[in-house]
Amino acid sequence: MPQSRRPSSGNIAAPSEARKDRLSLETEYAYETGDALSIADGAGLRGGISRFHPTRARVGAPSGFATAKGRFGMSKHCKFLGFVALALVATTPTLAQTVPVTQTRTAPNATASIPDFSGIWNHPAFPWFEPPASGPGPVTNKVRWPRLFGSPSAGTLALPPLKNGDGISDYDQLVGDYTNPILQPWAAEVVKKFGEMSLAGITYGNPSNQCWPEPPPFIYKQALVLIVQQPDTITMVYSGNMDVRRVRMNQPHKDTPALYGDSVGYYEGDTLVIDTIGIRIDRPYAMIDLFGTPYTEALHLVERYRLRDYDDVKDAIERNIKENWLFAGDVFSGHRGKFLQLHLTIEDKGVFTTPWTSTLTYVPGPETWPEVVCAENPHQYYYDRSDSDVPRADKPDF
To answer: What is the pTM of this model?
Structure first.
């Protein structure tokens, strides 16, 4: 691995124009019973949920996009099966030298049954990390919403925030806890400055609200993930902007940075282990969470996926309910089928003082897939209606 270095100042998101008044939260739902919720921003959501209402269509059927109160229109239609097919077959010969950055393993018993992780899984929570029961954990929000027990979605701007009280993360004011001891001093200052912008009414750019690729762990912001499980490859498609991760099974790492990093996987009994390194830092909006926590080329993620029962995950569900805004309501506590639980370990010697852990607990998702392309609506409708800093080509490809 190359020596870690801090991202250049060009990688720190530039703030949008400040707006003095506290903006209202308008959350609209477009769903049917048993389906995940489609979220649409009002002006005040600092995290930048895409204000898209995808039409419902069976996977593989062409679908369009409905308009929301006449504010935007969607033009492209796609067939999701075609998209998935392209995602699975689109391969490019790689000239990069492979290096044994981390040990590659196979299942101890090659004939052992491999769990079926395939399907659509749902984790509707903002922000997304479930703090660990003990030990170092992720940066969390210093500003809290009161918990509204019994309501379909706890937290509302109709009530004042609790700046130093009990409550869930205030999604309208993203003020990361820069005193978290996992942060090195320079990284704590970065998080603190982003928090100051949020308190001043500034919506700062992040990969989601600027329609940029969302590498892990920021990609967990997207509640839905479709897992396509094959012997040599695990393909993970995330909602929101159709980000795709490809996990090469039982292979050594490549020594070539990429937008989504280089992910290799293997099975340990009933656990799918995914090891990711090489996430590029020479890009705008390089952060691992909504609080602007930076990363360097030393970022290393280990994801451990397991199918679990309710009794195995109920403690993580309780921590999730206490920390995060469940914008679809509590879809976890009443579920008694299988859960997909991700146990995540993150280390970055250039940013963090120690490795830290978190979980994300998924329930089965809807039978249909929302077809959403963020860059088709490049206006910051959730903030000041200016153009988003969507990726642009310097010259035509043809």
So the answer is: 0.72
Strand 119-122 and strand 65-66: the pairing is unpaired
Residue 333: inside a domain, yes or no? yes
Number of domains in the chain: 1
Please, which residues have CB within 8 angstroms of residue 228's CB and are 6 or more apart in sequence?
84, 87, 88, 118, 234, 235, 236, 237
Dihedral sign of CA atoms 128, 132, 135, 141 in order? positive
CA distances from 143 to 107, 169, 187, 190, 291 (A): 44, 6, 19, 17, 12
Q: Which mean pLDDT values do the consecutive 10-residue runs of the chain (398 residues) have?
A: 43 41 32 33 35 32 30 36 45 37 44 87 95 96 71 47 69 93 98 95 90 94 96 95 94 94 97 97 94 97 98 96 90 96 98 98 92 73 70 77
Does residue 396 form part of some domain? Answer: no
Domain housing 157: 1-390
> Are the beta carbons of 119 and 226 closer than 8 angstroms?
yes
